[in-house]
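Methods — Computational structure assignment.
A single polypeptide chain was analysed. Its primary sequence is given first, followed by the predicted tertiary structure written as C-alpha cells.
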Amino acid sequence: MRFDLPYSKLSGSLKRSFCVAKTGLRLLACMILAANLAACAPEQAATSDTKVHAVAAGDVLRWQGDYRGRLPCADCSHIELHITLYPDLRYRMSTLRVGHVQAPPQVARGRFVWREDGLIELDQNGDHMVFFIGTDGRLEMRGNDGTAHPNHRGEICRLDKIPDTPR
C-alpha cells in the first residue's frame, strides 16, 4: 500500500514541520561548511622558496594515503578530521566532534574527481568539499572557487599526511 500525498495536501502543521526540518538540515550543512572554511593551521607567507606545488593526478604514490587534522568548531572544542584517499578515486572521511556530547565519529564514503584546476572535489557524501594536494604532503581546504579562505586569525585548514607504516 502506498501513501503518496502531494505537498499541497499536507495539513498546515505537517507543512510547518517539513519546512522546519528542511531549514534545519540546510542550516546544519552551512554551519559545517563554515566551520570547515574557518581553518586550522597558520598561513605562512608564500615566497619563491616556500611555494608549495600541486601534486599531479597521475602521481598516485604521492597523494594516496591518510590525512589528519583539526577543524575549528562553533559548539565544541574542535573537529578531528581524517580523510583517506584511495588510488581508484574513492575516499573515506571521518569527523569527530571533540568536547561535545559523546557521539561516534561521522563517516562518509564516496568518490572524488580531479578538477581541471588541479584540485580534488569530493562527491555529495563529502559535501562537495574541495582540497589542494601539495607536494609538502598536506591537504589544504579550498572554497569552490579554488582559493584558500583564511579565518580571522589568518589560518587555513591543512591536514597532514600520515606516513605509511611498514607492514
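Note: Residues 1-5, 18-49 have pLDDT under 50 and may be disordered.
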